[in-house]
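Repro:
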Amino acid sequence: MGADIEPSDCERRWAPRLVRLCGQIRAEARSAMAAAVAAGALDLAARAVRQGAGDVTYAVDARVEAAIERWTEAIAREEALSVLTEDSGWRHRGPDGRGGVRERPGFDHGGPRIALDPIDGTRNLMCDLRSAWTVVSFAPPGACAPRLRDVTLGIVREIPATRGARFRPLVALAGGACAFEERELSEEKLVRARALDTGDDARVDHGYFPIFRYSPDQRPALAHIEAGLAERLRAHEGANLRHFFDAQYISNAGQLFLLAVGTYRMIVDVRGWLAARGGATTVASHPYDVAGAIVCARAAGCVVEGALGAELDFELDVVPPVSFVGFANAATARRIRPHLEAALRALPHAT
């Protein structure tokens, strides 16, 4: 759970439950994908079912949401809790005193506040292209919606494509260490485990430095930022741009996982910042996509902050857009941040 900070009774009690829930989510998602692949019908898994509270709900999402609903109902018969998913938003439930469950009016019920992104990276997974991730953001009891600063436990667990035989989970307490594991899918047999430490290597090449470009209308502006950053790193830091690699991973949790394990040296997702700057709207990262993953990345030694070095804090809900910048470690942040900020400020307003 973390080498530097001992979990409270609340986190100690809830972490195993949440890990088991992640296992149920992974099993449901992979079962749906395996059936679609076997039938030669990936289009069925990729079918849009409805517009959820935070994002489009696809067929594979709907199956997982049903599993979360069963899990929540079972716990709510015994104790109160608040659960957020991208399909339903926040729901507050607890015992009705007769062995059943009743809805609660809000957060002030004495139970935990848990935000879930069951499948972050649905678009990768439903095409059997790349892993998706389950993100858990756990906050202890409170009277209102939690913010990032209230999240005391982050869990990120991999949902591999159907060809995968292993998965990788991260678990971290806010302010503690980040535990990395690799496990066999069969019976979750542990293969290896270690505490993550991203070190102090501050290289500006021979690695992945992606600026995420999701929406086609924003790609020219984001490419302008990337070109400006790369040129500044070449001119001022001696970067070899032949080895300044890009990766477009449609999963914020996957991006932050790769930052935490040292594969990415930097990740920039400023979609919301860019849209607000131009008085527009866009599809941006959601709080439930990233909160638990940010806790894990920071516990591994990464620096994760807002655009232009702003403090990163947000309410966990389905609506607020989140922009963030992540660096592998503090040394990398010190070296790259000035050049990234210069590239962001140099973006023409007409772009």
